[in-house]
Amino acid sequence: MRVLYAFIEEEKHQYLLEKYLTMNSNEFNIRISKFRRWQDTQLSLLGRILLKYGLNNYFDIHDFEIGRTPNYKPFLINKNLHFNISHAGNLVICCINEHPIGIDVEYINQRIDYEDLKFQMTANEFDKIQGSEDKLKAFFTYWTEKEAVIKAHGKGLFIPLTSFEVDHNQAIIENETFYLKEIFIDKEYQCCIATNQVILQKVIYVEQLNMNKL
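RESULT FIELD:
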């Protein structure tokens, strides 16, 4: 399993556009061209760049095409690999794996009131957060775990957050078990991966890509 991440940089924005826009579909380029902020454009583009870098350098895949399932989950057409991309704040992260994978990263916003999102939690989850020494950390742990599982499962918004719980780094959706692991990237971010294969003992290669490598 490969986890690649990078932080966006405004001074590299035009360079990235000129070098990498042609590798994407017209549909993708049109979509990101509608963003008003350069940050949003670069986050989306950089996710695809990380995917390309990972496939090229670690899986010897240089030509690939991205499709979408009926539930809108992106996948690699005719490749026995899975990927998932997430971004928050100034960080974008991409995971590539041999089995279905979900990854979620969130910026730890100190101003958020997690109680406003109580309706998205089960009673057990809310009580666990309330009983934690670091409630904000516990909330973002809960949130990234849930999002990672949903993304790994592949049905997205069709799976309500309150329809399952994470217990001892495992969750079950529709009789399928998913295994979770926290990935440390930066103290200002919370990140978690989920897959339907046991991952606690697996080696996970985490690499930061400097813009000078791209």
